[in-house]
Specification:
There is one protein chain. The protein is α/β, with parallel strands linked by helices. Helices cover about 40% and strands about 15% of the residues. It contains ten helices and ten strands. The strands form three sheets. The protein has a four-stranded parallel β-sheet. A four-stranded mixed β-sheet has the order 4-5-9-8. It has a two-stranded antiparallel ribbon with strand order 6-7. Helix 1 runs parallel beside helix 9. The chain starts with a strand and ends in a 7-residue tail after the last helix. The model has no long low-confidence stretch (mean pLDDT about 95).
């Protein structure tokens, strides 16, 4: 199963590079980027999971309902993207449930940072997708964590995809910087080895970021229309190969109670 996911948040990325960006612009960029993603998915009949911040959802409830109406899953990405307290876990879930009218059972911490399993369980979640099981200098060092799904703390843990053996991350930066054909090849190999594939992106990647002063090439490379074309190519390739796209909660429901390790 192909598990596509998108972290739908206010576009606060420029603040990491010392640039001030108005709240209205943060919302606009993410709204328009989300629309581009939904168009690609609808064109291929592919479903995905959208991890949404409560703050963005309150500012753009029509986007969250469009995600729901497209047959996708809405999960939580916390309340605010650049601030966190434990009470936000339940707060964000309630905001999203009020807007969608559906139960929210999944969570992903902004920037894939750690979050306590017990706190997630108390807040009503069934799965956590906040682990990138690789090593990235200055960001992650999770080489001792399981590379594929596992159970811990009463939750199903769904790490982001990394390649077998060397654990090369197949996250959004790889999607933009590797040649598109190579990225697709690594994704196919990982799917074949693991039996499923968990990928994640952001709506702002699909907007033209090159004109924003202060953002490095690390995050602007192949953004905008090129990113849309790459997503089209990735989803189309898997569709032609007869692969199934599903949501994270659907995948969790298929899992045995005790995985063999």
């Amino acid at each position: 199963m192909i598990l596509l996911s998108f972290d739908i948040e206010e576009f606060d990325l420029p603040m990491e590079y010392g640039r001030v960006i108005a709240w209205e612009e943060q919302v606009r960029v993410s709204k328009e980027g989300c629309g581009r993603i939904l168009n690609v998915l609808a064109g291929h009949g592919a479903r995905a999971t959208f991890f949404c911040t409560g703050r963005f959802a309150e500012a753009a409830p029509e986007v969250i309902r469009a995600i729901r109406d497209g047959g996708h899953e809405v999960a939580s990405h916390g309340y605010a993207h650049s601030a966190f307290e434990e009470a936000d876990l339940e707060r964000s879930r309630r905001v999203l449930e009020r807007i969608t009218g559906r139960e929210v059972v999944g969570f992903r911490m902004p920037r894939m940072m750690p979050v306590a399993d017990e706190a997630l369980r108390r807040a009503g979640y069934r799965y956590n997708s906040s682990l990138n099981p690789t090593w990235i200098p200055g960001r992650y060092n999770h080489l001792n964590e399981p590379r594929t799904w596992f159970r811990r703390g009463g939750l199903v843990q769904l790490p982001a995809a990394t390649t077998p053996h060397v654990r090369f991350p197949l996250f959004w930066l790889s999607f933009h910087h590797l040649p598109a054909a190579l990225y697709r090849r690594l994704a196919r190999r990982t799917l074949r080895h693991d039996g499923y594939l968990s990928l994640y992106f952001h709506p702002w990647e699909f907007m033209p970021l090159q004109g924003i002063e202060g953002l490095p090439c690390l995050v602007t490379r192949n953004s905008g229309n090129e990113a849309v074309a790459r997503l089209e190519g990735l989803v189309g390739m898997f569709r032609r190969r007869g692969e199934r796209f599903g949501t994270y909660s659907e995948f969790v429901d298929t899992l045995p109670k005790s995985p063999v390790r």
